[in-house]
Specification:
It comes from Sitophilus oryzae (Rice weevil). Keywords: Cell cycle, Cell division, TPR repeat. Belongs to the APC3/CDC27 family. One of its GO terms (cellular component) is cytoplasm. With about 130 residues, the chain is mainly α. It has a single domain, classed as Tetratricopeptide repeat domain (Serine Threonine Protein Phosphatase 5, Tetratricopeptide repeat, Alpha Horseshoe). Helix content is about 60%, strand content about 0%. Helix 4 packs antiparallel against helix 5 and helix 4 packs parallel to helix 6. The longest helix has 14 residues. It is globular, with a radius of gyration of 21 Å. The C terminus is likely disordered.
C-alpha cells in the first residue's frame, strides 16, 4: 500500500486534477486508517466530479469510521440518489457487513415472510390430492 500511495502521489504531482488517481489515493488513505487525509482528498474530489456516487459512498464510509453517523447517512443518501441501483447494496453492506455474506438461512431471516404466508397446497384452501 505504501508503494501504491507513492505511485498515486507521483501521478497527482504530474496531473493534480486526475479524478481517478485522487480517488484511488483516497481509497489507500482509507485502507491505511488515515481517515482525515482520505476525507480531505474526497472533499477536493467532490468539487472536481460532483455527480460521482462512489465519491459520496466513500465519504460516507470515512464518516462512519470517524463516528459521524449523521454525515455518513447523509453521504450514503446522496450516493443512492446519484446511483440508485449501484449504491444501495454497498450502503447496506457498509452498515451491516453480514448482508454481503450468505450466512443467514433465508427461512430464519427476520425479513423473510413466515412460512404460513406462502400459498401452498396445505394452506391455500384448495383440496390436496
Amino acid at each position: 500500500t505504501e508503494k501504491a500511495l507513492a505511485t498515486f502521489n507521483k501521478a497527482i504531482a504530474s496531473n493534480p486534477k486526475s479524478p481517478l488517481c485522487k480517488f484511488h489515493r483516497a481509497s489507500v488513505y482509507f485502507a491505511l486508517g488515515r481517515h482525515v487525509e482520505a476525507l480531505k482528498e474526497l472533499e477536493e474530489l467532490k468539487e472536481i466530479i460532483p455527480k460521482e456516487s462512489s465519491v459520496y459512498y466513500l465519504i460516507g464510509k470515512v464518516h462512519k469510521k470517524l463516528g459521524n453517523t449523521d454525515l455518513a447517512l447523509q453521504h450514503f443518501s446522496w450516493a443512492t440518489d446519484l446511483d440508485p441501483k449501484g449504491a444501495s447494496n454497498q450502503i447496506k453492506e457498509a452498515f451491516d457487513p453480514a448482508i454481503g455474506r450468505n450466512t443467514v438461512d433465508p427461512e430464519e431471516s427476520p425479513l423473510s415472510p413466515a412460512l404460513d404466508e406462502y400459498p401452498s397446497e396445505s394452506n391455500s384452501g384448495k383440496p390436496s390430492y
